[in-house]
Amino acid sequence: MNPILSSLFALSLFSSLSSSTHAHQCHFPAIFNFGDSNSDTGGLSAAFGQAGPPHGSSFFGSPAGRYCDGRLVIDFIAESLGLPYLSAFLDSVGSNFSHGANFATAGSPIRALNSTLRQSGFSPFSLDVQFVQFYNFHNRSQTVRSRGGIYKTMLPESDIFSQALYTFDIGQNDLTAGYFANKTVEQVETEAPEIISQFKNAIKNVYGQGGRYFWIHNTGPIGCLAYVIERFPIKESDFDSHGCVSSLNHLAQQFNYALKKAVIELRNSLPEAAISYIDVYSVKHELFVHAQGHGFKRSLVSCCGHGGKYNYNKGIGCGMKKIVKGKEVYIGKPCDEPDKAVVWDGVHFTQAANKFIFDKIAPRLSMACQRQ
To answer: Which InterPro entries match (predicted)?
Structure first.
């Protein structure tokens, strides 16, 4: 890592650790989350079929709608705020929305894509659709709650919408969708202003519905993830000293620069909003670069998958099985120590990695209600 960047990262971590000594100054009675698979707690599974085993095996004991062996960062956020895990808005079975709702679905982009899930692997529930779902939920939940009885216990009170924390973790799929469509990194970069513009509109729309507290993650180092690295042949010279693709990580950094600028503009235009910009890129990159120093044995190599340099194969996903001598066996099988791996399935982080990420950003929660 560049010495200057290393110093800045160390300073950032020191500041975070220093602030962790303060008690929580903010109280959020609910969370409303928007995003992709990094924070999907069951949306895509409800719409298109459950993410099967071994997903969920490290904590829930069985599949729980998450593309992970256990909990996601959003789960740790909910825990730290003393709230239940978020129910997916699309999941009608056993859901309780009294403390918020999750509109995220795996594969979701900010900008709507002109393709189906089966064609591209990207979700039709783009950020604009997620806002429409939230808008309808906000209005209809109050109508239904007024009926009394069980509805009062399953749906949020009206004043919760202005007191809740609105979390966003989305944008990664917009970058990879362009790259997967054979566009150059430079061509994908030119699309960033339009993507960021649509993101800003979503924040403004939620603000118009009474949202005041926003928690926005930037996007991670996509050049360190097997599903991106393995998509097309990459020249050896394009890899950095840590095994990540430099140009793809630069693309994520450029996107994040534009996102941070947009957050500053939103703070100026939405005077009652408290907007936290959370740099998860730096935390995730630190984890890839110094995995062993943080107690991990695997950094780029997936825990759950099959074959190849990264234990990842697009055609043989985590959990895929086949019949061998009359018995069903895993082909895309999990590793023995998922808690020692950074990447779960070539696309998503393990529960252990998510906990590491959360621990580094958690001190900011105590200030998330403060306007900057």
So the answer is: GDSL, SGNH_hydro_sf, SGNH_plant_lipase-like
